[in-house]
Amino acid sequence: MTTLATAPRARTAAASSARPGAHLAADVWTMVRRCVLLVSRDVDSLVMGVALPVMLMVVFVYVFGGAIQAGLDGTTYLNYVTPGIVLLCAGFGAANTALAVQQDVAGGIVDRFRSMPVTAWTLLVGHVVASVVKNLVTTGVVVGVAYLMGFRPDATLAEWLGAVGIIVLWVVAITWAATFVGVVVRSVDAASAATFVMLFVPYVSSAFVPPQTMPALLRGFAEHQPVTPVIETIRGLLTGTELGTSPVLAVVWCVGIATVFAVLAGVVFGRRRHRAG
Questions:
Q1: CA distances (Å), origin 128, targets 131, 210, 260, 262, 269
Q2: In this structure, are residues 257 and 249 in contact, taking their beta carbons and an 8 Å threshold?
Q3: For a designed S-S bond to 232, which of 167, 245, 246, 276 qualifies (C-beta 3.0 to 4.6 A apart)?
Q4: Alpha-carbon distance values, 136 to 76, 97, 172, 192 (Å)
Q5: pLDDT per residue over 126-157, tens digit each?
Q6: TM segments (predicted)?
Q7: Helix, strand or coil for residue 240?
Q8: HEC string of 84-116?
Q9: In the prediction, which pLDDT does 248 show?
Q10: Which residues contact 137 (CB under 8 A, 6 or more apart)?
């Protein structure tokens, strides 16, 4: 009985040891295709990922915009708020990634991968890449709706590419953070509660109102948290506002967050698989 139980694992280990780097890339590609396919089939999530940011943009522009406009030094509130809505859209996408990862970890699919010559941690990479693809699509739709509402960026092609690059970096960073949450928690409800923080943080930044209008304590947090330099970089590239040190801070924050949470997610994922085995 012991021989029968250990034989599949022995064959898997032998197959894995014989797989060079090219096969690792093939594993990543397989997982990316799987996760992108799952995302494309989750129509409800795609619709809500676009509808909620658009509804928030409509509310902020048409309900609160008139009251906030006076403190923006001539910049239209729609131009001001659109970068913040883009990051909020990315937050919704990352929250869904945490749920998807948790469902995979708890649903037994990882155990099935353990019985095949597949590098299991590539599952996490697949979820991150799928999140980036989904978020770029939904971000494009949100920017298109903002343009219909009157958003008029004056960016050059290079500035547009820079803004997209910062958006991609931010999506990768918060998706790895969400992936870590999905690996750590034990239920979908816990994943939903944990990722609420990612949805809340943009509100206490320069996304919707200038930080100088906030009370001193909130202003200090808003000016020194990672969302603000990311938003200020996107806003500066698209609408010509002052950039200052925001691009450097944005890149440092994004790379730092992505690196830390990618390592933590990989470590915790490996330990959970080891205990399950």
A1: 5, 31, 14, 10, 14
A2: no
A3: 246
A4: 25, 14, 11, 22
A5: 888 888 888 888 888 888 988 898 888 888 99
A6: 46-68, 80-101, 121-148, 160-183, 190-209, 248-269
A7: coil
A8: HHHHHHHHHHHHHHHHHHHHHHHHCHHHHHHCC
A9: 96
A10: 46
